[in-house]
Amino acid sequence: MSFTDAITDGFRKYVVFSGRSSKAAYWWWFLFALIVYVVAYIISAAIGSLIIYYLAALALLLPGLAVGVRRLHDTGKTGWWILIAIIPFGFIVLIVFYLQDSEGPNKYGQGPDTDTATASAAY
């Protein structure tokens, strides 16, 4: 999955908490969100108000949660594991989960991104 495919997929499925997302889809989305947050913060700092940053964070909240839950599904874990991030250092557990390889078919679906037309099998 390419960078633009991951962004399109993230926004297209912005409230879809079922199914699976590949490791590439998650990390490309993470990079996109990081870039948006940094740019929004710089713009907000330049105008003297954090409103642009807050609007960007609000716009990326649901898609980010959805792609994170779908990534957890891809590793064979329930999406409720995302809540571990609210405890101190819980984000480390999530990072480990997000870095794991995809499982074969599991109870969350056949495989990551099987409903998209991405046929790039050349790695």
Strand content: under 5%
- What general form does the structure show? globular
Radius of gyration from the CA trace?
15 Å
The secondary structure category is mainly alpha
What does this 3D model show about the protein?
- By secondary structure, this protein is mostly helical.
- The chain has one domain (3-99).
- The chain is built from four helices and no strands.
- Helix 1 crosses helix 2 (23-47) and helix 2 (23-47) runs antiparallel to helix 3 (51-74).
- The radius of gyration is 15 Å and the shape is globular.
- The relative contact order is 0.19.
- Mean pLDDT is 88; it is low at 116-123.
TL;DR of this structure?
With 123 residues, this protein is an all-alpha fold.
SSE order and pairing:
Elements lengths: L2 H10 L10 H25 L3 H24 L15 H10 L24
Primary descriptors:
123 residues; mainly alpha; 4 helices; disordered C terminus
